[in-house]
What does this fold into?
Amino acid sequence: MTVLHLVQPVEGGVARVVIDLVRAQSAAGIRAVVGCPPGGQLADGAREAGAEVLPWRAGRAPGPGLAAEVAGAVRLVRRVRPDLLHAHSAKAGLAGRLAVRGTLPTVFQPHAWSFDAATGATGALALRWERFAARWADRVLCVSEAERRAGEAAGITARWSVVRNGVDLDHFRPGRGSPADDRKAARAGLPLPAGFADGAPLAVCVGRLCEQKGQDVLLRAWPELLGALPGARLVLVGDGPDAERLRRTAPPGVFFAGAAPDIRPWLRAADLVVLPSRWEGMALAPLEAMACGRPVLVSDVSGARESLPPGQGRLCLVPPEDPTALAKALGLLLAEPRLLTELGEQARQHARTDFDVRRSADAVTGLYHELLGRPRPLNQERISR
It folds into this structure.
């Protein structure tokens, strides 16, 4: 079986999902080919995971270059001759479905809906496109039930599947010793400024610095938190288009760590991992944090409730774009070390039970076999039962 993964985002969660997926598929004997823009983490990561990587030049936003992007996707399909096209994210879903128009079995995986990211005429056009183009997807693959429900509520009529995101539980796991010792050791090994590496309550936010991830909401909440918990500290891990603007507006007690090739030390250094997103499908960073034994505080967007351990919603969910509610929840959690330890252990067990990337990858491969009319391998049959 040959699968062409057409992908536009070369950084962040989408790239990590694709890398994990092609690693599992290559190990299972599937020929995985990734077409993506050069640069970023995706090309090298997918190649190391066993995929063939071919260049596909595409920008994040729709524009005058769309015709060239569709033509590039057509050339990739002709060159690779895949059994199935798997298009990841809005731009690849746009160009890929225009390129093949139902002539090739197609899976479209939005990784969060494009019409949630846009407003006005652009958002309305994105919604009209998704409603129309669903006819050119043999399956629309969502990463959470909430993402599927949002699509249905928006009037998209599709053949749906849901496979929740997973993480590599061998890679993301707690360090040695108690959570307190783990945090202390992680902080000692990081380039933290004075006042961050000691016992101060530390929140960490991992994600691309952009409107979607809501770091601006977190920075507006932080002064309110400092009024109740003056010693608290915040680290933002990541880079992106909003980096300079966020730096200019950052209050005291905030450190910008930049992009990190390995986010595990930052997760382990945290008392609490926070992600105040405006929209998601199901964010990876909270799953990775939970696998490392850290509690998370997330905004109540698609996938958030499904990612949390049962019973943690009342403490660990806040409305999106509400700095006051976010500050209140941060203050409540960061002031209670014992509660954080308890929530972190629940999160670790939950991640290991529900979010193993191998299970996610097997489910996606099983979907391919279903669409191509081929029997599943025996190990996937056992997993499905």
